[in-house]
Design brief:
single chain, alpha+beta, 3-stranded antiparallel β-sheet, 3 helices
Length: 219
Amino acid sequence: MDKGRTIIGVASEGLKPAGLIAAGAVVLFAIGFSVAGIFFLAGSVAVLLFFRDPERKTQARPGDIFSPADGRVVAVGPVAEERYLKGPAMRISVFMSIFNVHINRIPLPGRVLEVKHLPGGFRMAHLDEASLQNERTEILMEDPSGRRALMVQVAGLVARRIICRLVSGERVETGRRFGLICFGSRVDLYLPPETASAVNVGDRVRAGLSVVGRLESNG
């Protein structure tokens, strides 16, 4: 089941702030402050655009790993991931600017093993140290063949709210919405070390549509 809470193409979390700003615009127009009202109205539209949530159909083949976020690839390569994977891993990181769609989607099918939210700072999300120092939500997953992967939603300089609707134990499908990060952020994937990367630093990717890596079947 897709856990995206979308209304008329907008994530539900964006409707309240957009509505409040629009209400302020109405009040300003009513009392004759037309210029200020126009600015408020433009602000309401900007919020709706930020929380936009287009429909997407993921065409997944066995072994495909999709981008969990829209944005620019800022890191690709082998690392040591000792917190959950306890060894070498392939890391692929995607930075989302405020202009990107911010809906996050599941990168590979399987089961959620653990979800943990950790407090932290709010450094610029494209910096490498943000992965471990910023506020974040860590999601440990296991694919149908038993291989584990870690996905981390990382807050950024402006981002102050991470939304993750996943719970431990649930099964997930590739491309399903599971959350978002408000106003600029980053998502890190830590994949099995044998993952073949399909992207390079600087590539533009879209959640649920762009293949970022591939795992060969164990069978």
